[in-house]
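STRUCTURE REQUEST FORM
Protein name: non-specific serine/threonine protein kinase
Source organism: Gossypium tomentosum
Requested output: structure tokens
Priority: standard
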Amino acid sequence: MLSKLYHIRDGCLIRMLCVSLSIRIDDGQNGSHFEPKPVPPPLPNKCDWEVDPSELDFSNSNIIGKGSFGEILRASWRGTPVAVKRILPSLSDDRLVIQDFRHEVNLLVKLRHPNVVQFLGAVTDNKPLMLITEYLRGGDLHQYLKEKNGLNSSAAINFALDIARGMAYLHNEPNVIIHRDLKPRNVLLVNSSADHLKVGDFGLSKLIKVQNSHDVYKMTGETGSYRYMAPEVFKHRKYDKKVDVFSFAMILYEMIEGEPPFSNHEPYEAAKLVAEGHRPNFRSKSFLPELRDLTGKCWASDMNQRPSFLEILKRLEKIGKCTQR
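Status: completed
Returned output:
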């Protein structure tokens, strides 16, 4: 009989494999009996994703992003290029910072999808605290769009499909992950050819256990980035996973128009305009009527009117086929 015993200790899942299997070998004369020894469990206070900081090589590193709590560097881990989010030493003892850091690690450990940035490990036993993910050479969508000054409908649809696939995975019930800060800076290009996108940066994400498909959540505070923020978040009202659908619509708009929504306004003023019911104007000829219609549904004021990402995927695939004819 083969059985697995799961035991929680120090926040790590330790698998203890208990083997009680008797193997009998019959040589035609005398039966022989062999009982293997139980496989010893891993070290009890180490997670399999805990990284020894000595394995990280920062000798040729460079900063690829900065935030209020730390910086993101390109480094090398066991000979592989990686992205390392490193908490500022001055904040390594801050209780709330540590809490947010551990929340992001615990969230990333659970994620496995081709359109979601892959978590590789973390440094939690030493300071500074560090979170390690795959390094994507293409940079972020914000910089890419800045250089391209707008995409044609075919490229925008392909990009939108990748984002929607990643978000459909995150929104899968019953364990829904609301990103809450979906924006071009948090969408990464796998390589310089820009043929594949991944959703990243889950620092503000929230894991919700959904009891039914119409659940809404009271999350106070203006969480996220103003320019891509859903009106219900700005107004401090109850909201659900459809806040990400709204942000997606703003990204789709920016991909085709070549400029952020309400680019002539400061981010806070842009969010205020959105909360008052205003939406940016469609100008680009690349904005196909079908894409305009989809964008309009995704940024609807009533979150219940916005489609799910699975519905968005179906619409995008249909529009994509029409453009190829």
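Reviewer notes: Helices lie at 95-108, 141-148, 153-170, 231-234, 242-257, 267-275, 289-298, 309-323. The domain at 141-323 is CATH 1.10.510.10 (Transferase(Phosphotransferase); domain 1).
Form closed.
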